Amino acid sequence: MTSKNSGEHRENENIVKNRELNIWEALTPVIALVAMLAYNVYVFGDDALSGSNQFILLLGGAVAAIVGTFNKVPYKQMMAEVAENLKSTTGALLILLMVGALAGSWLISGIIPAMIYYGLQVLNPTIFLAACVIICAIISIATGSSWTTSATVGIALIGIGEALGISLGMTAGAVLSGAYFGDKLSPLSDTTNLAPAMAGGELFDHIKYMLYTTVPTISITLIFFIILGFTIETKGSADIESILTSINSAFTITPWLFLVPIVVVVLIIKKTPPLAALLIGTLLGAVFALIFQPDVVAGITEAKELTFRSGYEGILTAITVQTSVPTDNLALNDLFSAKGMAGMMGTIWLIVCAMVFGGIMDGIGALDRITKSLLKMAKTTFGLFASTVGSCLALNITASDQYLAIVVPGKMFSKAYADRNLAPENLSRTLEDSGTVTSVLVPWNTCGAYHSSVLGVGTAEYALFAVFNWLSPIMTLIFAALHIKIKQLTTKNTSSHKEI
């Protein structure tokens, strides 16, 4: 996910072990949660994430706490794990707030409208989706963060796609496919560093070994979007000309506006903490708004002209709460609106509730028990890989955190891989193929909640089109089943290995 939650790794994550639960005790909160969420979504539909799902996650945590109480798990221990989980998301929550601020700042400064304006002229509708994958992959490799990619170029591409009449789900799926490809392979990514650390391998050996499954997966993804681009209907050039005219009349469009996103990307490449880079991007956006869009800033407060007071009020309004810039094109009126920091509160609420559920599940030992049960079913090498994939998917769903989906299976399975004479790269690659990339497909996972909120597209809308993300675990299982590029230790318990 990628900064994702924070720049800190979770190598020291504790797997809590109590009096061991039986498998049905461990699964009871999961079954209850899934059942309650399913009914809740049935009743509320797309509005489920507006608050009701958050409360359902708390109810799931209550069920887990009851199971823990019956197994004599101290209340303080459960709350300690919840606190630890919440602490780990501090960076993510602050980044979410800053992304909301940046979106407002970049809207009124004309940065996002400029990206859409020039993008409509450069990106051919037929190759637009494939281009989204490539652009986001490059940015994500350079920055090491799918989160930053989504919050910057991703937002602009969503706007361009909407202007072209392309489904938001398709565009978001292409953006996330590219973003997670780059995030997964970038040595700057925290998950790319975390996976080999958990498996006991080396970073660049891990990256090299991931290429075997990642290149075929991204190739299939690109072919899918190229074919899709030739089959979908997009708006004609006349519509585009009308949109360009409307943008030009509402904003002062100039290439100078691109200095701000360039500065942000450079800062990330220079390993500036994402939170600091986003803050700088927000402040620069505010300065550019005062320079290039004085009428827009003044218009937010309904002032006749830009003064110190109206400028201050306009900038702070755009950064903190919902703001819209009206145009003479009805389609653009929805596009040129931002919710500011306030718009991120629903996502923050969701993450907090998800961390409560995940923390209690970890505190009562349920996550540990579920993972062990999966491990017992691994009688063959393929079974071991399949159990790892299953554990990562289960933790992304139950613990709602991609770091836990890497740390817990990494700790649980590392000895099993060594006992099977398998090199650590096998485990680290599987952790990334199934733990990192699938987190964005779960609505209540920190990654799913974040990207859905930032892009303004529900996970159900983009899940099918996030081809790279759901195809990656399938690809790693195919390689395992066919014994393609499965590294073995040449001498047991040594770091040297060979491929079979």
Helices, by number, come to 24
The total strand number stands at: 4
Oligomer: single chain
Biggest beta-sheet profile:
2 strands, antiparallel
Major sheet: arrangement of strands: 1-2
Q: What series of H and E elements makes up the topology?
A: HHHHHHHHHHHHHHHEHEHHHHHHHHEE
Helix content: over 70%
List the helices and strands and how they pair.
Layout: H1 23-44, H2 52-70, H3 75-88, H4 90-108, H5 111-122, H6 128-143, H7 146-163, H8 168-185, H9 190-199, H10 203-231, H11 237-250, H12 259-269, H13 274-292, H14 294-300, H15 308-320, E1 323-324, H16 330-335, E2 337-338, H17 345-363, H18 366-376, H19 381-398, H20 402-419, H21 424-436, H22 446-455, H23 459-462, H24 467-481, E3 487-489, E4 497-499
Antiparallel strand pairs: 1-2, 3-4
Helix pairs in contact: 1-2, 1-18, 2-17, 3-17, 4-13, 4-15, 5-7, 5-11, 6-7, 6-8, 6-10, 7-8, 7-22, 8-10, 9-20, 9-21, 10-21, 10-24, 12-13, 14-15, 17-22, 18-19, 18-20, 19-20, 19-21, 19-24, 20-21, 21-24
